[in-house]
Amino acid sequence: MNTNQELGVSTEQAETMANRFFEQLEPKVKKGRAWTFHRLSAACDTPDAERLQAVLYPDDGQGFALYVRQGQTLHAITHDGRPVRFRTFEKALTTLADVAHLDPEIIVDSSNWCEESGPH
Fold first, then answer.
1. Nearest to residue 65, comparing CAs of 75, 74, 55, 73?
2. Helix, strand or coil for residue 117?
3. SS3 95
4. How confident is the model over 35-66, as pLDDT tens digits?
5. What is the β-pairing status of strands 85-86 and 107-108?
6. DSSP labels for 1-57?
7. Which of 15, 37, 73, 120 has its CA 20 to 30 A from that of 95?
8. Which sign does the torsion angle of CA 62, 64, 66, 72 carry?
9. Given a cut of 80, is residue 119 above it in pLDDT?
């Protein structure tokens, strides 16, 4: 067992303590009401408004679902009541490039990624 001599704890315990510390620094994101793409564009139309950041969730069979993070709130972006999806990352970039004042850093959250198995 590896031990951190200065703290008197194992390496695993030290890593767990560090992870908990950093998780507390950034509060959990909560889900908000769904927005239309028009609502997203309108919210980004003001240069000094709260920072909005695009979040893409990949799905092997359906493409990238679009969400927007507003502070600690995550809004699904919908069109006609259905999630806005992009078949490719390039399509998402092309579309989001036209949204004024959207944070230029886009998050791709692959935490629930699962490759779809198709015909062999």
1. 55
2. coil
3. helix
4. 999 999 999 987 778 889 999 999 888 889 99
5. unpaired
6. --EETTTTEEHHHHHHHHHHHHHHHSPPPEE---EEHHHHHHHHSSTTSPPEEEEEE
7. 73
8. positive
9. no
